[in-house]
TrEMBL record:
Keywords: Membrane, Signal, Transmembrane, Transmembrane helix. Residues 1-28 form the signal peptide. This is Transporter substrate-binding domain-containing protein. The chain crosses the membrane at residues 288-310. It comes from the Bacteria.
Length: 457
């Protein structure tokens, strides 16, 4: 339980970061759900008698459609697709209108079809004074701005004033054409059939700029082009344009747009346009806030990792301290055990240097461990010289043979000759390698005298 309490702050941070990621996952799941969902049941809107009669009299509504990627275009199967197509399909389900698309290849061609009565409506025309003379426009259901598009090697375009005395190329009968002629007469206008031609002229340097819908401008690789700022006050609302003389059709479309669920319309726009339009430039404080948020995130992540690392280090340190305490306890036990032995005992390394000994060894040779520890017998004056050299040679030879030795012998000490029973055995490390000698001796005469004292007669 103490372990879990220690990790509680880390668990809180993990939960917080998981919740942040879950928000993004939920948003992505919402979009995926919208795309994958089966067609929903749509309630029909209430229409009056004249509108119902108009639908019966017009089994098909001809839509003049020019390909404008993401808004309306033909897919790989030749079927019309896009944002506006989804909107018309929803309106068709709500009203019973049957929309039939007839492809046009330029804005001018599309307008001629509507003027001649060959088409009933369209979905991609911007509203201007010229078009209001022969078209009625429905309620708006979205929109975007016009942007200036110039050559990549030229300065970034901020406004139409920069194009004074320069060439601006537009598709014929463009929605901005009349406004530019009226408000910016010094701009040299040139008309072409399509936006593709306009972009090509700007890339080649034959024209200085063109004007495109903000969404459309982001769809194509910039190449030699550079997208500038939006044209001030030029918001282009999305309308359904209906040829004049069809008030019933306009009324039906407006009723359908009014009844269109706002959440569904927002989801359709998000499905097609999300990530296309560039994000607006951030102000200084917005950038500071964003970097501040990232800074907090990075610091929090670093703090979380530091917390986990510190916890791990604390556990490792505790484990090491426990092991050291256990080893200390074992060493203390070994010292106590060897000191309790009545006979002298010693431990020497591979060079014959003394590692440790017991109290009996110190008493027998009248020395202290700290005086002789780490030294060979021949380096200290605890035994006669010839005895020390003999025993040291025997130790080294035994380390080479690695055989235990048990012998009864007479040995000359500083205080005289004694009869002893001597034993020495090699000892090994955990890796199986010999590490030194463990040995000792028993004073036979002393044991006999001690044994005689204990006998009762």
């Amino acid at each position: 339980m103490r372990f879990l309490r220690g990790f509680r702050p880390a668990m809180c941070w993990i939960f917080l970061l998981g919740a942040m990621g879950l928000g993004h996952c939920a948003r992505a799941a919402q979009l995926m759900g919208f795309e994958a969902a089966a067609p929903m049941t749509v309630d029909a809107i209430e229409l009056d008698a004249e509108e119902l009669q108009w639908i019966r009299a017009h089994p098909q509504v001809i839509v003049a459609s020019k390909q404008y990627p993401l808004y309306q275009f033909k897919d790989e199967h030749g079927q019309w697709s896009g944002l506006n197509i989804d909107v018309l399909q929803r309106i068709s389900a709500m009203t019973g209108l049957n929309f039939v698309h007839e492809e046009t290849f330029s804005t001018e061609h599309l307008l001629r079809r509507l003027e001649s009565g060959a088409a009933d409506m369209t979905t991609t025309l911007a509203l201007n004074d010229e078009r209001k003379l022969f078209l009625d426009f429905s309620h708006a259901f979205g929109g975007s701005a016009w942007v200036l598009v110039g050559h990549a090697g030229a300065p970034l375009l901020h406004s139409l004033e920069q194009l004074s005395e320069k060439k601006l190329v537009l598709p014929a009968r463009h929605a901005m054409e009349a406004t530019i002629q009226r408000e910016h007469p010094t701009i040299e206008l040139r008309s072409v059939k399509t936006y593709a031609e306009a972009r090509a002229l700007v890339e080649s340097g034959e024209a200085d700029a063109t004007i495109e819908n903000e969404t459309g401008a982001q769809l194509y690789p910039t190449g030699q082009l550079k997208i500038g700022h939006t044209v001030e006050g030029s918001w282009e609302a999305d309308h359904l344009a209906v040829r004049k003389g069809q008030p019933e059709l306009l009324s039906i479309l407006n009723k359908a747009l009014e009844a269109f669920p706002a959440a569904e319309l927002r989801a359709i726009r998000l499905k097609w346009l999300d990530g296309i339009a560039p994000s607006p430039a951030l102000s200084f404080w917005q950038r500071v806030t964003r970097w501040g948020c990232w800074g907090v995130f990075v610091v929090s992540l670093f703090g979380l990792l530091s917390l986990l690392w510190n916890r791990r280090l604390a556990m490792l340190i505790k484990q090491r301290l426990d092991v050291e305490k256990h080893l200390s306890d074992q060493l203390a036990f070994q010292h106590a055990l060897i000191d309790a032995m009545p006979d002298p005992m010693f431990v020497r390394d591979l060079e014959g240097r003394l590692i440790m000994c017991n109290k009996s060894y110190e008493e027998a040779l009248s020395i202290r461990l700290d005086q002789v520890q780490g030294r060979q017998l021949i380096e200290v004056d605890v035994l006669p010289r010839e005895t020390a050299e003999q025993l040291h040679a025997e130790f080294i030879a035994q380390l080479d043979t690695r055989k235990p030795r048990f012998t009864q012998r007479q040995l000359k000490f500083n205080n005289g000759v004694r009869d002893i029973y001597q034993w020495t055995v090699p000892f090994y490390g955990a890796d199986g390698q010999v590490r030194g000698l463990l040995g000792g001796w028993t004073d036979i005469a002393q044991r006999r005298s001690e044994g005689g004292c204990q006998c009762s007669r």
